[in-house]
Amino acid sequence: MPADAWTLGVRTPRGAGVRGGGSERGVWPDALRHATLGLGPPRTDPSGVQQHHRRPAWTAEDGARWPARSALADALSPRRAASKGVFLPPPPPPVWPWRFPAEPGSEGFEGITQGQSPSSYQVEELHLAAMHFASFVLESPTFFICSDWATLPATQQAACGWTSLERFAQRAYRRPLRPDEQERLAAFWETNITAGPRDMAVALTAAGILQAPPVHFRVSSDANTSAPSQWELATRLSYFLWDSMPDEALFKAAETGQLADRAGMERQARRMLDDPKARPAIVHFHHQWLGTDQVTLVAPARRAFGPRFGLSLRLKDASNDDLKWPAIMGPVRYSMKYETELFVEQTIFDGAGTFQALMTDNRGYMSDATAPIYGANARRIPGGIAVTRPIELVVASVGRQQELTLYPAEFPRSERAGVLTLPSVLALGAYAVQPGPILRGKRVLERLACMHLGTPIQGAEAALPPDTLTVTSTNRERTAAATRPATCNTCHRQINPPGFAFEHYDAIGAWRAQDNGQPVDASGTLVLGDGEEITFTDGIDFVHQLATSERVRNCYVLHWTRYALGDRLAAATPGLEALQAGFRNDDSIKTLLVSIAGSALFRTGASGAPGDTP
Fold first, then answer.
1. What is the pLDDT of residues 195-237, one digit of tens each?
2. Which residue, 161, 180, 465, 496, shows the most beta carbons closer than 10 Å to its own?
3. What is the DSSP letter of 543?
4. Any idea where the domains of the chain sit in the sequence?
């Protein structure tokens, strides 16, 4: 197919021409939303700034609002057959969005150079998606620079098609095309328009553009030692703070040289953090930091938690469990996920905005689904604005869609404090029946303290206590006994204490005073990698001390800086200490992000530059 001549490079996306940073987070479907369909006529926002429409009405992520597939779409990209369910076939795949395979990532984060190893399956999916969506450029009210494309004479169609594709390519590449790229694109267009109908030529050329490496990767043909261009800085900044391509204001700043110094970068960063697009992007970072985007996969056992949600311990018949428990747990899982997102967003953008608050605030959200987890002491905040989100769940192999309403709430300070006591985090650190102190401790050490624990010894999992209700001691006692041998204790003397700190929380994150009829012991002492010692009485005391820990704050800055640059930086990278020192003194998260954006490390990769003092 002609498109292949333009897209061969996508099969080797890494190499000498790829600058650190790897793939662009959110580039699919972002390239389609913004590059393919976001070239609308300028509008004036309330601030008086002229901007382009980011999304025509029909480009909303609700696939039902997209136009029907055209005959050209069927020719370029035959419809995928819907897989059949056990009882009822699901509806056919929607026009939008396209489900892509997950990126391998690096240490839990996407968009990192060291995590880029695209498989042939991923490349094939990119090709299929490009062919699917390219036909929609003909449906877009903003793609063509001319009017009435379908009625134009052939020569005018060719001229309009080429100029429209040129503009589209610059938008998709997020920068002006280089002369060699311009020539290659022109040759590709000529091949397509000579070979077949002009509509088909436009769509094939658009499909080729959507598969080009510069669309998906931060690519530079310059030497690795040279500083990023201002166009590259605009892209780096937009995917750092928005998980999306630059808007018109940021493109204009790059074009006019306003990103050449610290002040210009920080000015844009502040503007972007005030934009609503920053909120889901910042929340997404924290999902990756804590792993909480996986909470919809947790599987608590009915035999352990059914009574909490009004179910009997014993089933009347085999089908009963397939209907009632999944119908309860579906909303519970989604509520845990949304509670995490709303807590992070509220704390950073609408609350104190500090790391201290992120780690210790006792206000958040709950739903009717998770009310049994929080218990009678949770209190809805009077006058708080409820949030309703759509959810999908499967019961008896049949998919369902419904709405879930979450309410602002305040929780007892003795039970909840910050992200580590959210049910999502606690449920991920648990098994079907019992909490997992080892899982919880490992998360604290690796994600919050940046301590690398290595690979467990062979047979370690077999030594874990059985995950059962028929036990005669506490969870802490059983875990301590299983990890007491010298071959285990070398690591578990560090792993166990931060895990035991959360023993007041069961496997679904509900607070408990007793475990197996005995008072919970959640006290301990943790020695961090640099000798910092934390002695605590319970999980609440522990997270309050973590919030002020120098190592924990340094680790948080390291995660953010790696994410911003798309590179797994070493902890001793020059320029990083200045950012960490600033955050230790002022733990405002938005201030940290602005400082990263303005740093020489972000702008040039150098450890310092004139006028670069924080």
1. 989 999 999 999 999 999 888 887 655 555 568 899 999 999 9
2. 161
3. H
4. 3-220, 276-428
